[in-house]
Amino acid sequence: MGKDTLQARVEESLRKRFRRTIWCNFTKAIKLYRLVREGDRIAVCISGSSGSMLMARLFRELKRHDEFPFELCFPVPDPGYAPDYLSQIEDNAAALGIPIRIISAGSPDTASSNGLFPRRLCTDTQSPILHALAKETGCNKIALEDLFDDVIETILTGMLCEGRIQTMMPRQKSTDPEGPELIRPMYLVREEAVRDWQDANRLRFAQSAATAEEGSGHPEIRALIAGLRANNPFVESNIFRSMENIDLRTVIAYNKDGVNHSFLDHYDRIP
Predict the structure, then answer these.
(1) ∠93-55-196 over CA atoms, to 5°?
(2) Where are the domains of the chain?
(3) Higher pLDDT, residue 106 or 82
């Protein structure tokens, strides 16, 4: 099937079949968390996975509506990808109408043994790779492909494996005033919807860099979520909502800006 036909089919699927599960959740996150502002220049970071390619296609659709001026670029940070992996990224980008730009990022030592990009190097606001990427592209924001499922795993991993309550934020400022802001426009899109979109359009992508390097988070956390979902289909939504409904009056202690606070600090002043 020709590239133009594939691209048209993908665009139509986002407008129709996957409008509710993908497009609407993408635009909801953009508006709810104010991820895109007038005058932004956004680097839509391409790892080669289905999630990053879908994100790029969604941003292309968003640009078509263009409620206010903003700019996009589609860099592929290359730390020394395996040649076959890089070739597949280029082929998929061409088929989907994504004008990628391959940018050297680090050295082959940065990549894992199979030549894939370690995801952990792309999720830290202090990552030198992200800073270099922003400088190279002239972008003030970098869009990452993290999904709703990643948010849920982060919450449970923090609680069960690290003894703290935290979440993956939809946007993060760099502590360096000159550093890029990270945004996660796929924050409300579910992994299942991405798989359905990929299968419906008969797309094939290289193995996700995140999956190859680290697995999808902690396997035991994923298994736990799957088990809970079997009895309660709303469990993931409830976990997500719990982070929006924290009542500080019921929290024993919390940390803000590196300072620990206890409920006892103000307990005696409560009538």
Answers:
(1) 90
(2) 3-215
(3) 82
